[in-house]
């Protein structure tokens, strides 16, 4: 009796950690006994199953694009043009050099025809410096277009798309109205001509081989008039120091 009471008394004095350690030992003992008896060493065989049926392929749908003939209306009425009418265009290959294949987007502002030289004065439609192009040469920015012939009121160019004539713009006339929507080709925008050389360009535009002498006479008159004005200004400056006041006491 005394031995049993002493064991009970010692259990009552045990700590909580002692009880947790005892529980872990008990679980370990149970797992060892289960493994010794063969738990987890036998796996039941699964019966073989018959293969299932394959999914059926989708039904074949007819051609949605249709024949090419039904799209003729799209070609005769383009979607991305204002008047829904076909326009001629020029295909340009890339990588053929700067200015190669470029469109002739210039305005003819003047021509010069004389026995020594025949040239056209061009200005970009978007604005910029004017350039002089002789017969047989190509303008800067449009190397594929060559000036074929200079006429009194127009210049004829030849390029990849054939021949193109630029009409001379008349000075002092307001810009023409926008081209009609049914026009076959569009003409580049006309800009005002440069003002400093207006008299010379006007004379050059009306020049013909027979009037070369008149052009030289006009130039000589302009130079003579300028020399006369310079002489008058110089004389007025030299005589200003000798002028005396008209009123006041004489000295």
Automatic annotation (TrEMBL):
- Native source species: Thermomonas fusca
Protein's UniProt name: General secretion pathway protein GspN
Bias kind Basic and acidic residues: ranges: 207-226
Lineage, uppermost ranks: Bacteria, Pseudomonadati, Pseudomonadota, Gammaproteobacteria, Lysobacterales
Region Disordered: which residues?
Answer: 177-251
